[in-house]
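re: ur question from yesterday

yeah so i grabbed the chain u mentioned. its 349 aa long if i counted rite. heres the sequnce exactly as i have it in my notes:
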Amino acid sequence: MPLRRSSIVLGVIGAALIISALLTELVAVPILTRLPGSLDVTLHYAGTSSRLNAQAVQSGDSAHLFLQDVPTAIDRHIKAVSTTAHTAVVTDDTNLSVAGTTSSESHTYALDRKSLRTVPAPSGAAAESSTGCLAVAFPLKPKANNSYTVYDAATQQCFPVTYVGKDSRGGRSVYAYTATMTGAIKEQSLLRTLPPALPKQTLAALAPQLPEPVRAKMVASLAQLPDPVPLAYAAQTTLNVWADRKTGLPVDETLHQQVTVGVAVAGQRVDLMPVLDVNAAVTPDSLNSTAKLADTASSKLLHLDIVTAVLAALGVLLIVIAVVRRRPATASQPQDIPPPARVPTGTAP
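ran it thru and got these structure tokens back, copy pasting raw so excuse formatting
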């Protein structure tokens, strides 16, 4: 059956547009929505802290043992330092400033550029051991459920994340998540800021500050402990994150971390007292900056969705037109008209 040439052309163009839409969705979108190699974000947190006064501990000044509600600042810098097709090596540097004392942590993760979970580092790159959980952010279009786990640098473990619900931060629609992480501290840069041991005399001077059950147990066991007494530290951290529903970026965060010192008494760990208690939240300026970043990234995603939809719709429309107009027009044939009847000659009308 002959086809119109214009129908063939329209069909070919329509098929090409649909293929372009598929390529955009299956190839371009995954490439453009993975963790960018240009990632370079700084977050600022502000809050208060209570911490053990190291000078008072050394002098046995139990009246000034703790510094209370000290202004605290946290600066966190996340940067991609190298990328491959599927993996990004990201540094995560944090500086904590409390009462004129500054401590810093530096971590390097290898992340899957799509899921943002930690993975083994590429050949030739150095990164912390893979844990398979989130380390710096949530993935694109995060799920509103409890399926995520998050890495805690202090204890070097993964902990489950609990989905709280929908919310709004900085003009962006977000999902709220929370996680509580508890365990012995393994982060060496944090341990270096804490005394590994204390003389028995110092612990005895601290005893009046301890809760009664702990004080009684420690005083009764001091004679059995070596001098100086080795100390062990544990941390409990509660992290609340408001992640953008489109991009997964953490628009807002709050952090509460308590570090507790303990000793081993008769083979059992006895927690003595908190030596550091930090409460901090993302500053308003950082919240607004992150919200703008999420807004820009979300606009790019929307443009990709629009382009894909338009290409697919035009392709289908052109193919439909091609099918409707597939037959060429046929020339109309004149109908046979019978000749007029002849009247016999000589017949009167």
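noticed a couple things. Residues 33-282 form one domain. also The CA atoms of residues 14 and 314 lie 7 Å apart.
anyway ttyl
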